[in-house]
Design a protein that fits this description.
- By secondary structure, this protein is an alpha/beta fold.
- It has three domains: about 180 residues, Alpha-D-Glucose-1,6-Bisphosphate, subunit A, domain 3 (Alpha-D-Glucose-1,6-Bisphosphate, Chain A, domain 3, 3-Layer(aba) Sandwich); about 230 residues, 3-Layer(aba) Sandwich (Alpha-D-Glucose-1,6-Bisphosphate, Chain A, domain 3), CATH 3.40.120.10; about 90 residues, 2-Layer Sandwich (TATA-Binding Protein).
- It is built from 17 helices and 24 strands.
- The strands form six sheets. The chain has a six-stranded mixed beta sheet with strand order 3-7-6-4-5-8, with helices on both faces.
- Helix 2 runs parallel beside helix 3, helix 2 packs across helix 5 and helix 11 packs parallel to helix 12.
- The chain is globular, with a radius of gyration of 23 Å.
- About 50% of the residues are buried.
Length: about 525
């Protein structure tokens, strides 16, 4: 339970032994596997237990057999309570099916799974993580040979097969890790050196080292810790401090989020408050963080405090273009709910703009084809062509450090871009709802709005219905889409007029959708 004392939220105590017991022996019937882009997630116990992990691994083994996919599967996870146990179980199931497995002895960041697949050392992966969710949660996701999140066809098949095995556990094959090792089916691997070595092809670590600035990074108790340590050592970054090396599966050292939950979100001011304090006190010129599985980034600077992911994406996109970092790429990619200032930056640099549905999987084909100078989403995920087909929070933090070293405070750089292209006012509001309303919004089509000619004093230019409803206006837009995991409607809005107009957009969005 989370309690309030004197009006202040206090942290929830996490009973590790109870969660472990629930993982191995759930007190209620395990929920069916719901395998989306981020795999299957749930609270330890009925939401995610040992049977879920084994059933998903057996489903993946079946798919590899049916599709005759040959090659090693990289198996691992982040620093969550049951991540190691889940990785071991997956390896036991996969090897029992005759598949070869790479099982590193350290936590594996999500982007490193992608990097290893694209490097040819693995053909696919099973990744035990629930991203920045509260510590009680666990998850397992699969990436195929393109290194990116699995598409809907593949996730649907994994879900179908996994639920068959949930209903018939005796069909799941298992052998011990000792037997798998003896048979030559499982091996350890150095996943740190190849990644941090390749990173120097895109990141100017010398500029960071010689800048005279002080940098801080916080792994938020996650899988990036050993990678930041290796980066600091290999590139002799004596001006880089890893301000926390604590690994605790309860994540109790992370400040609680707005709702009293422990949530390791690097774009939230609550868990990021220690880093904000560091830069505001003048101790550091830049502070960066990545979440437990390292696919999201966050940063704070003396002039900007906590930098909005939208702002950071704009600065990174502009910098990457001007410094010709991604040769041959011709497009900036963003999701539907991400700032349209990226559109103006693309136009200014004579680049194309690709607007995709929410979800990093929609960038994968373009990343594979070397289309994107930057592919980003407002929820603090980004990558570039020629790097990973997954979001990479470590890469983003290192790139932001380079930008800071070479060009100054990220907040100043964003302000300059906004002055050149127009200052956007942006927000996202989560509105509580129910399943009925979510289904109604999901079913809406652009044709349903043909009689809506004006919103918030502006003419409706067009309506997009590929992922919720997005209404485009001359100087603004709004998007309403149902959450895939919670009973909320997410309303995004942006305008180049005023803060007042932004509030009007949110109000009108709610009226239009009633």
């Amino acid at each position: 339970m989370v309690s309030k004392l004197a009006g202040t939220l206090t942290k929830e105590k996490i009973d590790i032994k109870k969660l472990e017991q629930e993982f191995y022996h759930p007190s209620s019937t395990p929920a069916p596997v719901k395998f989306g882009t981020s795999g299957h997630r749930g609270q330890l116990g009925a939401g995610f237990c040992a049977l879920h992990a084994k059933a998903i691994a057996q489903a993946v083994a079946r798919i590899h057999s049916e599709k005759k996919i040959e090659g090693k599967i990289l198996v691992g996870g982040d620093t969550r309570l049951m991540s190691r146990a889940v990785a071991d179980m997956c390896a036991q199931v996969l090897t029992a099916n005759g598949l070869k497995v790479i099982l590193p002895d350290c936590p594996v960041p999500t982007p490193v799974f992608s990097f290893e697949i694209l490097s040819g050392r693995a053909v696919a992966c099973l990744n035990g993580t629930a991203s920045h969710n509260p510590p009680q949660d666990m998850g397992l996701k699969y990436n195929p040979s393109n290194g990116g999140p699995a598409d809907a066809t593949l996730t649907s098949l994994i879900e179908k097969y996994a639920n068959e095995y949930m209903a018939n556990p005796s069909a799941i094959k298992e052998i011990s890790l000792e037997e798998a090792t003896t048979k030559g089916l499982v091996e350890n691997s150095d996943i740190i050196t190849p990644y941090i070595t390749a990173l120097a092809k895109l990141i100017d670590f010398k500029a960071i080292r010689d800048s005279g600035l002080k940098f801080a990074v916080h792994p938020l108790g996650g899988a990036s810790l050993s990678f930041y340590k290796a980066i600091k050592a290999k590139y002799q970054l004596t001006n880089l401090d890893i301000v926390s090396t604590e690994i605790d599966p309860t994540f109790y050292f992370i400040p609680i989020d707005h709702d009293g939950k422990i949530r390791m979100d690097p774009s939230s001011k609550y868990p990021m408050s220690p880093l904000i304090d560091f830069v505001e006190s003048g101790e550091y010129n830049f502070a960066g963080a990545s979440d437990p599985d390292s696919d999201r980034f966050g940063c704070a600077t003396p002039k900007g405090g906590l930098i909005s992911p939208n702002h950071a994406l704009c600065v990174m996109a502009d910098y990457l273009v001007r410094h010709h970092k991604i040769e041959g790429a011709s497009t900036i990619g963003r999701t539907l709910g991400t700032t349209s200032l990226l559109d103006k930056i693309a136009t200014a640099h004579h680049l194309q703009l690709d607007e995709v549905n929410v979800g990093f999987k929609y960038f994968v084909p373009g990343l594979v084809k070397h289309t994107y100078v930057l592919a980003g989403e407002e929820s603090a995920g980004m990558s570039v062509s020629g790097w990973t087909t997954e979001k990479d929070g470590i890469f983003a933090v290192c790139l932001l450090m380079e930008i800071c070293a070479k060009e100054g405070d990220i907040a100043d750089l964003y302000d300059k871009l906004a002055k050149q292209n127009g200052v956007p006012y942006y927000t996202r509001v989560d509105v509580p709802t129910d399943e009925t309303t979510k289904k109604k919004v999901k079913a809406m089509k652009a044709a349903d709005f043909k009689e809506v000619k004006e919103v918030a004093g502006e003419k409706v230019l067009r309506v997009r219905d590929t992922d919720g409803i997005k209404v485009y206006l001359p100087s603004s837009w709004f998007l309403v889409r149902p959450s895939g995991t919670e009973n909320i409607l997410k309303i995004y809005a942006e305008t180049y007029e005023s803060e007042k107009h932004l509030h009007e957009l949110i109000e009108e969005a709610q009226k239009v959708l009633k």
